[in-house]
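Q: My labmate handed me this sequence with no annotations at all. I'd like to see what the chain might look like in three dimensions before we decide whether it's worth expressing. Could you predict it?
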Amino acid sequence: MSDNIDAKLPSQPEHNSDGTVKPGYLPVAPVEHKPRVTDTDPKAARRAERQVASMFALSMILVVVFVIAYVTIDVTAVVYVPVLGEIGASNLVLGLTFGGAIFFIGAGAIQWAKKLMPDVEVVQERHSMESSTSEETEAAGNYERGKEESGFARYKIIRRSLLGAMALFPIPLIVMLRDLWQSDGENPVEILSSTSWNDGMRIVPDIGHDTGENVQGIRPEEIPVGGLVSALPLSIKDLKKDPVANMRDRGKAAIILVRMDPEEIRSQQGEGWDYQGILAYSKICTHVGCPIALYEHRTHHLLCPCHQSTFDLADSGDVIFGPAARRMPQLPIRLDEEGFLVARSDFQEPVGPSFWERG
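A: Here is what I predict for the chain of 359 residues:
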């Protein structure tokens, strides 16, 4: 019975409101320290030191292999892995090497702490957050003692190999920044400064291209007042066999068509750029490039779902709320001889978010 009572007693003292200790406090018995092999055998300590340094050195080697593999392995190459099947050779090697580099830094640090750093249990009582001068001096002394006990200064091989591993560790992160842009010699400013829209380019709904339907275009009578249609240039259909070019064109040329009462249009980005109240605007937010299709037909506001930038489509697509700094570019439109809506030219303003290379 007494064992059960003792088991419920708190291991730390509980205080009354007057600061006295409540009864029932069970003091914690100090744990007897048992020396490790590395504490008593200098050869074992040196062996552990070499093990830790070897792990840090392996991390450095794997980072070098990562960079070599990144440069030399063809991104289209595949290898067969049991259970997983065919996977990209580049992804497999890069993942294994970079993951291994991280693992060996962590494993080396754990091995260092378990075998070479002090393992004596220390109990520190709680105290007020504000430190006195004597406590600050004591803390500085504890830091110096901890630095000495950790062996960072004493174990030169570990120190040098760890510093080398940590110095090389960021290299894969820097190398992978190359994947953020692959221009094949093209200037990103030139690529993003023009789209597939030109005079006479027919506007087609952004549906049917991927289903194989024969979409001819959009007629004005198909868009009611208050309606919205997501659309693309007809030329997108010719790029179905080239996925990269198709996605690039979609990302730049996607538009929305909205129809409102012509009397509600307060301003446009060009004289007569609408057709009977039908306006065409880029679908790509000028903040960070999110696609937008949330339209309030009563207020004529277009809301970006990512960061709540709001544009007034009845007033030249100007920004009225949110982080976007530029208005939504407007596409001038007209009617062709067959009665379909077409573009009159390309956008007169840059589409999508701004970046430092584009003025």
